[in-house]
Specification:
The chain has about 190 residues and is α+β, with helices and mostly antiparallel strands. Helix content is about 25%, strand content about 30%. It is built from five helices and seven strands, in the order H-H-E-E-E-H-H-E-E-E-E-H. Strands 1, 2, 3, 4, 5, 6 and 7 form a seven-stranded antiparallel beta sheet that branches. The relative contact order is 0.15.
Length: about 190
């Protein structure tokens, strides 16, 4: 039974990566999302690009993937240019949060892993909802020498957080009761 529970949890965790959402996601306001995506695309020097940025969207219209054209990365805000890689990633994402559907003060990001390979830095961030980690909520930002080359997002959006009725984040039972209950379900 323990193995069945583990398999279920693994499969449940893979659903968002496959584009399946258990929460009902209403389509985003298309005009607002289009404007947010255009704002993001405007950070690219199109005159230096030989192709358009690559964009992948979720079913609700928000971005899941953003890839700048080769040789024309999305430019960082000048205030971020001297920042650490994680500050650059979080700052850029904060400026363009509406394109990814995370434009809420309840949603924030914490560094999970940073890896540098030559001139590129890969920053993986965990998504937080009122400071609590979101299961499988991650975004990876690829930074080049002069800007953002790529963003891959698997996030809980503001539509999924039910902003009109926020998800309670205060425990309704104490730690001892939670542990006792979890042990009862794992046998």
């Amino acid at each position: 039974m323990k193995h069945l529970h583990l398999i279920f949890c693994v499969l449940l965790g893979l659903l968002p990566a496959a584009g399946v959402s258990l929460a009902g996601t209403a389509p985003a306001d298309n005009d607002q999302v289009r404007a947010a995506i255009e704002k993001l695309k405007a950070t690219i020097d199109i005159s230096a690009a030989q192709e358009q940025p690559r964009i992948g969207k979720r079913d609700d219209g928000f971005l899941r993937f953003f890839g700048a054209p080769p040789g024309a990365p999305a430019q960082l805000n000048p205030a971020l240019r001297a920042a650490s890689p994680e500050e650059k990633a979080v700052g850029f994402l904060t400026e363009h949060d509406a394109a990814f559907g995370v434009d809420s003060e309840a949603i924030s990001f914490a560094p999970r892993r940073i890896k540098t390979d030559g001139d590129r830095t890969f920053v993986r961030l965990s998504q937080l909802y009122f400071g609590i980690p979101v299961f499988s909520g991650e975004i990876t930002v690829h930074l080049g020498k002069t800007g953002v080359e790529c963003i891959l997002a698997d996030l809980m959006t503001t539509r999924e957080t039910a902003e009109t009725e926020p998800v309670p984040v205060t425990p309704s039972i104490d730690a001892g009761q939670a542990e006792k209950t979890s042990h009862g379900h794992s046998h």
